[in-house]
Amino acid sequence: MMLTALILADSRFPGGGHVHSGGLEEAAARKLVTDEPSLESFLHGRLATAGLLAAGFAAAAARGEDLAVLDLELDARTPSPAQREASRAQGRGMLRAARRAWPSARLDALSRNPHQPLVIGVLIGEPYEAALTCAYLAVSGPASAAVRLLGLDPFGVNAIVASLGVEEVAARACKELPALGSPALDLLAEAHVRREGVRLFGS
After folding, report:
1. Cβ atoms of 26 and 195 closer than 8 Å
2. Exposed/middle/buried for 114, CB within 10 Å: 0-12, 13-18, 19+?
3. Is 191 exposed, middle or buried (0-12, 13-18, 19+ CB in 10 A)?
4. Closest C-alpha to 93, from 71, 111, 116
5. CA 7/CA 42 separation, integer angstroms
6. CB neighbours of 93 closer than 8 A, spacing ≥ 6?
7. Which one of 24, 143, 160, 199 has the minimum C-beta count within 10 Å?
8. How far apart are CA 182 and CA 188, in angstroms?
9. Residue 1 has what pLDDT?
10. How large is the average pLDDT for residues 38-49?
11. 10 Å Cβ neighbour count for 33?
12. DSSP 17-80
């Protein structure tokens, strides 16, 4: 389980996560994130909302809860169509890669268009590790995008990620199925998908 979690959290895993910035590209375009302090604020907010939500659903999937019900529940907690599509796009990519690496009947039970946290939960199969992986991915992707988009110091950016308290969020996610909203991220996602011109990231 631990090895699976490490592989999924690796940016080199061919699940398609590298083409998503989790709202960072739009935030940078609007000058909401320009430096390390503003990036830290953005990542902290993302972890406490969207990160906790995703981690909770990954933990529930790892516990073996009904995947079809979880899929509907996560849809209901994700009001932004752009956010839902980003989650499902990453879920499709991760599922495709996972079926090659870890074929299983449980993976086959997922829909063809699953949310990413559900794929992570099924693959890892242990609630805390699944939640930890999902919470980490919620901030590591945007952090990596910040280095590419803003030219920030990668040492400083990774120090921020290490200081965010990902473990505490993962532990909380194992105790409840969150119903948090993140309206700022929803608005950024909807603005990003409508943005004209060149975009480096799908979300």
Report:
1. yes
2. buried
3. middle
4. 116
5. 26
6. 14, 15, 16, 17
7. 199
8. 10
9. 65
10. 97
11. 26
12. GGG--TTHHHHHHTTS--SHHHHHHHHHHHIIIIIHHHHHHHHHHHTT--HHHHHHHHHHT---
Tokens of 6: 């490490």
pLDDT greater at residue 162 or residue 12: 162
pLDDT at 130 over 80: yes
Tokens 């990453």 belong to residue: 90
Task: Provide the token pair at 180.
Answer: 């948090």
- pTM here is 0.93
- pLDDT higher than threshold 80 for residue 10: yes
**pLDDT tens across 150-202, in order?**
999 999 999 999 999 999 999 999 998 887 788 889 999 999 988 877 788 88
Q: What is the pLDDT of residue 64?
A: 95
Query: Of the candidates 17, 113, 101, which has an alpha carbon nearest to the alpha carbon of residue 71?
Result: 113
Short-list 12, 24, 11, 66, CA closest to 201: 24
User: What angle do the packed helices 127-150 and 52-62 form, to 10 degrees?
Assistant: 150
Distance, CA of 8 to CA of 105 (rounded, Å): 19
- The whole-angstrom separation of Cα 199 and Cα 185 is 17
